[in-house]
Amino acid sequence: MPWSNQGGGPWGSGPKGPWGSGPQSSGPTPPDLEDLLRRSQDKLKNVLPGGNLGGKGFMLIALAAMVIWGFSGFFRVEPDELGVVTRFGKYVRDARPGLNYHLPYPIESVLTPKVTRVHRIDIGMRLIEDTRRTGTTMRDIPEESLMLTGDENIVDVDFSVFWLVKPNGAADYLFNIQFPEGTVKAVAESVMREIAGQRDIQPILTGARQNIETAVHELMQKTLDDYGAGIQITQVQLQKVDPPQQVIDAFRDVQAARADLERAQNEAQTYANRVVPEARGRASQILQSAEAYKQQTVAEARGQTSRFLQVLDEYQKAPDVTRQRLYLETMERIFGGTDKVILESGVGSSGSGVVPYLPLNELSRRPQPQTPTGGNR
Length: 377
Fold this sequence. Notes:
With 377 residues, this protein is α+β, with helices and mostly antiparallel strands. The protein contains ten helices and eleven strands. The model is unreliable at 1-28 (pLDDT under 50).
């Protein structure tokens, strides 16, 4: 059975729904467009002289429209913006902050990108709003952060890139690239993978962070300049550089072993630096002592040789006198430090042959009086 347009469907007649009530009007009735146009024409006739739209009226309307259209070319550029004026879509000039003017639309138009705002792009991680807690949480993105190193290891790198629009590159920024943030992110990830692929994992995990940041910064800027992107990279900052989560404990053990190895090497080097100079000092001291003994012995031998030659020369001049002198000097040297008893054994001598000898040097030495050990009785 066909439904009737006036019957409200199978639930009965009248403008009612399935629950027995018709549609309810919840707002005011929209104004009639024809009535609105009619009232506008009546007001315009009252304003214009003569009450009708003559040639003069059309001229006034056209003049007012031209004035309004001309004033529509004024625009304001904020301090953190740069105006880029285009004429029929083609770049014409830049507009500095302040009040500026361009030919009204559609001849010229203006774009005002933020040129002093520093943008940040995180790669390998995302800041996510935590609804259960007041703050944000960091979520790792493995498909962006896992990279292959030059020694065929895998490293997890999270880093941030800070960039802004070049002062004179706003036009390139607007017209040469379609998605600036996506372009910067793709270039940063590609460059970081290239730099990581040129190095071993050990320097990346330890002391090469500054070198990596500098290399990524320079290569990113060169790539974006080749694109004509009008973007300036201000900083590349490594946030986290770790091995993959599955093998991080093993890498930490290796790091601890390397630290112990370096510590042992440093201790051995310290000991060597202390012992070797001491040994060298002792060796130098022995060499100097030996050299001094050598020079002393040679000097004494030369002195004795010179003395012997001088004695020989004198002996050859007067053999008897020299022989007697040598004999006396030898006897003096032999008997000078011994106790002596002189016996006279010449012919015709009287007595027992013992010559009385008065030791004057021994008489001056008087024995010290001994202290009595016992008391008087």
